[in-house]
Amino acid sequence: MLIKEILDNPQNIELVKATTSDAEAILEMQIACFTPHFEHYQDYATSPVKEPLEKMIFRINYEKGSYFKIMADSVHVGCLWIYEKHSQIYRIGIIYILPQFQCKGIGKKALETAEHLFPEAKVWELECPEDIVINRICYEKIGYRYTGETKVINEKLTLLYYQKDI
């Protein structure tokens, strides 16, 4: 399938478990996805752009978590890290889609697929920047609700916390 066709209408979304050998490529993708946000928010403390390779390797190997490559029609277009926060409470630690593949429903399908992979999860949690409304709409469409909890990172960045009860 041509990249153009995937850009226009991705058909098959799969989550493929990442391995340590994927770490460098995944980190490069993460930096590409989050650099515009980093430039806007100037978040030197928590930005995924500033994460070292060792942290990526830790996440990939974390025994209570799973790091997935998001594949759209066999093309690696993003990533998703999920971990068990507490018994039956799972957290979306990070999700990102390359800019050219955003707004195609890929993130939504990836999250829905992830929920089916962890049937023991009764609660799902995630956070997102307050000003990225399109992400908030996506999460709300698949059943996440804003908890009312926020975290101010700096004067430009406030995170909103979302939860989905199964």
UniProtKB/TrEMBL annotation:
Protein's name in the database: N-acetyltransferase domain-containing protein
Q: Which Gene3D superfamilies match?
A: 3.40.630.30
Q: Which InterPro entries match?
A: Acyl_CoA_acyltransferase, GNAT_dom
The family database entries (Pfam families) matched by this protein are listed as: Acetyltransf_1 (PF00583)
> Domain of life, per the record?
Bacteria
Q: What region holds the N-acetyltransferase domain?
A: 13-166
Gene Ontology MF terms = acyltransferase activity, transferring groups other than amino-acyl groups
Q: What is the lineage of its organism?
A: Bacteria, Bacillati, Bacillota, Clostridia, Peptostreptococcales
